[in-house]
Design a protein that fits this description.
mainly alpha; ABC transporter involved in vitamin B12 uptake, BtuC; 13 helices; 0% strand; globular; Simple sugar transport system permease protein; ABC_transp_permease
């Protein structure tokens, strides 16, 4: 039994990593009061740019940097539209996703079917060979550990630093933060770029580690699940980590169950999305009942215009 569970749990950690990276970035963006629905498009651009750079240069580091840069450029487009030009955030985010899907397919067409070495697994001396814990926790690539470190760093930033306090203040009341002299637009730009970089790295994990190849639409809706994770986590980093591993586990279990039970693959493919809908329904019901644990930032999605 343990020989079956360890590979399944290790695969669930890997499957959760792109969700965790993207959700962590979006959590920071939303805590600043900005709602970016373009995660799917940014992830696809990151996946394509990271794969292309790694293939052309032979360097995984170059691929990761290119992926982060591609995500940031996509986020910059969104930020200019919504923060500088006051465009609707929901419409702009949806447009960003559609744009990313199309542009990644166009630019990435020459790279379809070409192989690239996967990100190397880290061999941690003395730990990788431990029974049970070794294959479960200490035989992953660097992005897996980076995703967990990013959660810890995000929690520390939001709760233990002056800059994090200002970002949260901007998300709760941009006008009040502006009255106190905080640069609302600059803070929201910085948060948006961070979210774009994390979404780009999430995409790079898919094309350089999870399935080391590039193909059109390879994110397969993970950007939308990452958005749901932010709500599931009540905008708290550690809850996002738990939620990401939960949804990653659901995705892996459906693959094993499909082979064991022989049912149509479509039934199991929809399980992560059914789980997403159920979680959001429960959270919505609790919110309607007067709960405060899942309250979104007060100014989330609201445009900011400095009062004169």
């Amino acid at each position: 039994m343990i020989d079956f569970l360890i590979p399944v749990m290790a695969a669930a950690i890997s499957a959760a990593t792109p969700l965790l990276l993207a959700a962590t970035g979006e959590l920071v963006v939303e805590r600043s009061g900005v709602l970016n629905l373009g995660i799917e498009g940014m992830m696809l651009m990151g996946a394509m740019a990271g794969f292309a750079a790694a293939l052309l240069t032979g360097s995984h580091l170059a691929g990761l940097l290119a992926a982060a840069l591609a995500g940031m450029l996509m986020a910059l487009v969104f930020a200019v539209l919504t923060l500088s030009l006051s465009a609707n955030q929901v419409a702009s985010g949806l447009a960003l996703t559609i744009f990313g899907i199309g542009l990644s397919a166009l630019v990435g067409a020459p790279y379809v079917g070409q192989p690239v070495p996967a990100l190397p697994k880290l061999d941690i001396a003395g730990l990788s060979d431990l029974p049970v814990a070794g294959p479960l926790l200490f035989r992953h690539d660097g992005l897996v550990y980076f995703s967990v470190a990013a959660v810890a760093a995000t929690w520390w930033f939001l709760n233990r630093t002056h800059a994090g306090l200002k970002l949260r203040a901007v998300g709760e009341s941009a006008q009040a933060a502006h009255a106190l002299g905080h640069p609302v637009i600059a803070i929201r730009y910085a948060a948006s770029l961070f979210g774009g970089a994390m979404a780009g790295l999430a995409g790079a994990f898919l094309s350089l580690s999870y399935t080391p190849m590039w193909m059109e639409g390879m994110t397969a809706g993970r950007g939308w699940i990452a958005l749901a994770l932010v709500v599931f986590s009540a905008w708290r980093p550690w809850r996002a980590l738990v939620g990401a591993y939960l949804f990653g586990g659901v995705g892996i279990v459906q693959l094993h169950a499909q082979g064991a039970w022989g049912l149509p693959s479509e039934m199991f493919s929809m399980l992560p999305y059914v789980a997403t809908v159920l979680v959001l329904t429960v959270i919505s019901a609790r919110s309607q009942a007067g709960g405060t644990g899942s309250r979104a930032p007060a100014d989330l999605g609201k445009p900011f215009r400095a009062s004169r």
